[in-house]
UniProtKB/TrEMBL annotation:
Catalytic residues of the enzyme: K223
Binding site for NADP(+): G10, I11, G12, G13, V14, G15
Protein name per Swiss-Prot or TrEMBL: Homoserine dehydrogenase
Catalytic class of the enzyme: oxidoreductase
Catalytic activity: L-homoserine + NAD(+) = L-aspartate 4-semialdehyde + NADH + H(+); L-homoserine + NADP(+) = L-aspartate 4-semialdehyde + NADPH + H(+)
């Protein structure tokens, strides 16, 4: 039996779901692969909970309940307040480090742990969308897996890597990879004003607390950069300009003022919807990546385009390659949500653990 030690950073929505999934598949992994997954550390923004020999199920369940009730790990009796994830690493054993935070600036720490023999699994896009040199250091020799960063549980990165590994060459990737922006496009096409659609999405929790974090397009640009870099393109965020849904002047105001002024955007969006309708086209927020460059923005697509058939919050990734030249290879489905995101991360953890045995 091989024991694989896990240190998890981030015990939010996806983090708690992942812990539950790990606990529920543990026995099956022992019988299927003789691999035992063992949490030695959990970290949130308040501190860590750790045990170099493995946290007990009781301690893990108590931590989950405490987090679900809004508490911090640092407040638990066995928790260590103010400590960062590094303090949860065992001194003599490599681990799989799992980043389910949205924190920036972790890449150097991860690269150090990789050099010391650990592996990394990410749902957090930020370490892979920092400098190109960090992307290379994290991903060389397959030390980091990051399926969940692009399409949550959808097999996007693994599909792309399989195409590249088998000698195919990528001509174009086109993708709608924001559930929030997909929902807004569907509402616009149904004749709903943008202001009404954004307020509804905000109320239902489809958007970030400040909807501008979705509407800026930066999250889509970050995913596009990760796909481009996976293809070996040494780009930075500046190479992927994203078209925001609001003018620069509305970027500076408070969130409340932004929400109050949403009606200012309605007329321009209604005109774009009308123009698309007139041309029998669909309006989609699309990332396009080719070896020559990338763009992220609202596009009018002909009805027969694979992305035109998308409805609601689903994602779609279309890969045109030397082998899939006439009809692209398409991956489609729900591209967000805690359960599918955690499942994407768990798939990466198991694949990493199997390689280690
Ligand atoms: N939700 C989805 O559908 C989805 C899909 C794909 C990818 N993702 C990515 O998955 C990640 C997690 O998403 P989520 O929805 O679970 O977010 P979340 O609920 O906001 O949870 C984030 C967690 O990270 C912790 N954290 C923040 N900064 C930290 C730091 N410096 N050190 C340690 N822990 C830190 C937070 O601590 P506290 O609990 O103390 O605040 C919290 O536990 C994000 O990067 C997100 O972009 C999410």
């Amino acid at each position: 039996m091989k024991q694989i030690f896990l240190v998890q950073i981030g015990i939010g929505g996806v983090g708690r779901e992942l812990v539950e999934q790990v606990l529920s598949v543990r026995k099956a992994l022992i019988s299927r692969y003789a691999i035992e997954l063992k949490y030695v550390g959990l970290a949130d923004s308040s501190g860590v909970l750790r045990s170099p020999t493995g946290l007990s199920d009781d301690a893990i369940r108590a931590a989950l309940a405490h987090k679900a009730a809004g508490g911090g790990l640092g407040e638990l009796p066995e928790g260590e307040a103010g400590q960062a994830w590094q303090s949860a690493l065992p001194s003599d054993q490599p681990v799989i480090l799992i980043d389910l935070s949205a924190a920036s600036g972790q890449e150097t720490g991860f690269v150090e742990q990789i050099a010391a023999g650990s592996r990394v699994v990410l749902a957090n896009k930020k370490p892979l969308s920092a400098a190109w040199a960090d992307f290379v250091a994290l991903t060389q020799h397959g030390a980091t897996r990051y399926e969940a960063t692009a399409g949550a549980g959808l097999p996007v990165i693994s599909t792309l890597q399989a195409l590249l590994d088998s000698g195919d060459s990528i001509t174009k990737i086109e993708a709608a990879m924001s559930g929030t922006l997909g929902y807004l496009c569907s509402e616009l096409e149904a004749g709903v004003a943008l202001s009404t659609a954004v307020r509804a999405a905000h109320r239902m929790g489809y958007t970030e607390p400040d909807p501008r974090d979705d509407l800026s397009g930066a999250d889509v640009a970050r995913k596009a950069l990760i796909l481009a870099r996976t293809c070996g393109l040494p780009w930075e965020m500046a190479n992927i300009p994203a078209e925001p849904w609001f003018p620069a002047a509305m970027a500076e105001v408070s969130r409340n003022e932004f929400m109050d002024r949403l009606e200012e955007l309605d007329a321009a969006f209604a005109a774009r919807v009308a123009e698309a309708k007139e041309q029998g086209a669909a309006l989609r927020y699309v990332a396009t990546i080719t070896p020559e460059g990338a763009s992220v923005g609202l596009r009018m697509l002909p009805a027969e385009h694979p992305l035109a058939s998308l409805r609601g919050a689903d994602n779609l990734f279309s890969f045109t390659t030397a082998r899939y030249a006439e009809r692209p290879l398409v991956v489609r489905g729900p591209g967000a949500g805690q359960a599918v995101t955690a499942a994407g991360v768990l798939g990466d953890i198991v694949a990493t653990a199997r390689e280690w045995v």
